[in-house]
Amino acid sequence: xxxxxxxxxxxxxxxxxxxxxxxxxxxxxxxxxxxxxxxxxxxxxxxxxxxxxxxxxxxxxxxxxxxxxxxxxxxxxxxxxxxxxxxxxxxxxxxxxxxxxxxxxxxxxxxxxxxxxxxxxxxxxxxxxxxxxxxxxxxxxxxxxxxxxxxxxxxxxxxxxxxxxxxxxxxxxxxxxxxxxxxxxxxxxxxxxxxxxxxxxxxxxxxxxxxxxxxxxxxxxxxxxxxxxxxxxxxxxxxxxxxxxxxxxxxxxxxxxxxxxxxxxxxxxxxxxxxxxxxxxxxxxxxxxxxxxxxxxxxxxxxxxxxxxxxxxxxxxxxxxxxxxxxxxxxxxxxxxxxxxxxxxxxxxxxxxxxxxxxxxxxxxxxxxxxxxxxxxxxxxxxxxxx
Length: 387
Hints:
This protein is an alpha+beta fold. The chain has helices at 13-21, 40-43, 45-56, 185-193, 212-217, 225-228, 269-272, 323-355, 370-384, and strands at residues 35-38, 61-65, 74-80, 83-89, 95-99, 116-117, 120-122, 129-131, 136-138, 157-158, 160-163, 166-169, 199-208, 243-247, 250-256, 276-282, 286-290, 295-304, 307-316, 362-365. It starts with 12 loop residues before the first helix and ends with a helix.
């Protein structure tokens, strides 16, 4: 019995086209192409610094799913590449992003790791107080700051939009951010999944001793699924042809589950997710994988050339109705913890260690890994772009 409440969610025309293109398992044809990527792509510290500046600080990044702030008057924080980011949902429901730094003495305003409910943000050092729109609303003993104008001491804003069930932020407060890449077709696709209306079941952060691109690579190929995951999710899958599409800089893969039958292809997300998987790589740092009863969301945060973190969130349609459903979801969460943390990200760490021996000049890619090449091509385009 499913743990999800079945609500009709029509697929977009593009999603339905991808689903309809998945062949019966017996008819799968695998691309016969070869490629390679220079090993230095992953281990060169100078390249990592260039990626920080030309990819992550000039591209909207995902800070978290909208489900982390399901109600007005709430906020959370996350550090991203040295920028402490504070995200709020104000009383009017609108989302804002700020540098998470008090305008008084520079203390971090919100140190909490979990989302907080409240109409005000109070600095714990001297109790300077801010509204969720960033305005400075209170200074204790304000008379000791003669002539201060609170309007000139609001929190420092970061460019921010909410789209497709995610909160996207520009990390540079001095740069105007172009959010067009997260609007349009990709937003329509994500809205069809209804991520913005889902609720958080549980979340965890995985620290990973590997370059960020190796972490993304683990999510970008179908070659490893029945091999690396032989002790976890492989029982739900077989080697099958993936239908891969670029949506702007984002990659969508439509893949058959082991129970896929082309004769039952439908136009409803809740039905479709029972027999296939939509997986999205949202450039540059988002991962979405749709399972029958939940959606896995990963938000990648590069830390250093050889260190990354993934904030993993399991989203469900609604809170569990009873203990039986709660227990089933808990088992699913534990399975995903194993699949990602002990298998995918473990493999990324093995690759990072191997490549840092400096014995390989390049890594090899086959036909079931074409998405990796697609992702790296987009990174290269960003690095080559003129200021």
